[in-house]
Amino acid sequence: MSLTPPITPWNPAPLAGRVVMITGGAQGIGRGIAQAVLGAGGRVAIGDLDAEAGQACLDEWGRGGDAFFRRLDAASERSVAAFVAAALKHFGQLHGLVNNAGPPDPHVPPLDTMDAGEWNQRLASLHGAFLCSKHALPALRQDQGAIVNIASTRATQSEPHSEAYAAAKGGLVAFTHALAVSEGPQVRVNCISPGWIATDAWRAPQRRRQPKLSKADHAQHPVGRVGTPEDIATLAVQLLAPTLSGFVTGQEFLVDGGMTRKMQYA
């Protein structure tokens, strides 16, 4: 008798029956992840500062009770607590959390002109990941929960005047492996660090447009193109699904078309 297990068919809906909460989920990478979760058979609770963008998601998806939106300020503990409570009331359970919310612009004033208040505001993605994880963890611990933090390749490489953004994203990478150790084995925690992702077509309806990208923009990536929200979303689904990534926790995954591996010498 062979001890080798038989061939097992892949589940075409790896998130069937699972509920995922996504911050910053109404636009850009967050919306891309939300749509992928729905496509993988899951249900989504999206939170976003932009209520118009959130309502547009519900209207355009037409998924009824499978999708829930509430306005969310991920840097406010009161807002986060209310969002998590509302999502649990709507769905009755929670299996996944994607910490995606945060300031989109990495560029800040020169460090010697920035005050402490602005510095702290620029760390919103890190603060939000703490607050959302804190309030979601009791539910996530119940059934093989998973957290996916969205960091950035700017955690490991920089342009001038991006110190606060880099600090926040680097903090998210460290927060990921620390939380994975603390919460295992009940909850897995991983991190995706996107590179250049074109999100112009994934904004609120009145701000959507086709990305203006040159041949040079695409060519500087070893894969030959700039990234899309779907590129991040497919990996997020895999990391959220216990049947696909049950042995993966505490990891950072760079999704950047190979840019961080490419020599930049002119």
Poorly predicted spans: none
Assign the structural class, choosing from mainly alpha, mainly beta, alpha/beta, alpha+beta, or little secondary structure: alpha/beta
Shape: globular
Biggest sheet overview: 7 strands, parallel
Q: Do you know the CATH architecture?
A: 3-Layer(aba) Sandwich
Order of helices and strands: EHEHEHEHHEHEHHHE
The top-level CATH class is: Alpha Beta
Number of domain units = 1
Mean pLDDT: 94
Percentage of residues in strands: 5-15%
Radius of gyration based on Cα positions: 19 Å
* Helix content, binned percent: 25-40%
* Total beta-strand segments: 7
**What is the H level of CATH, i.e. the homologous superfamily?**
NAD(P)-binding Rossmann-like Domain
Question: Which fold name is given in CATH as the topology?
Answer: Rossmann fold
Ends distance: 60 Å
How are the strands of the largest sheet arranged? 3-2-1-4-5-6-7
Annotation field: number of helices: 9
In short:
By secondary structure, this protein is α/β, with parallel strands linked by helices.
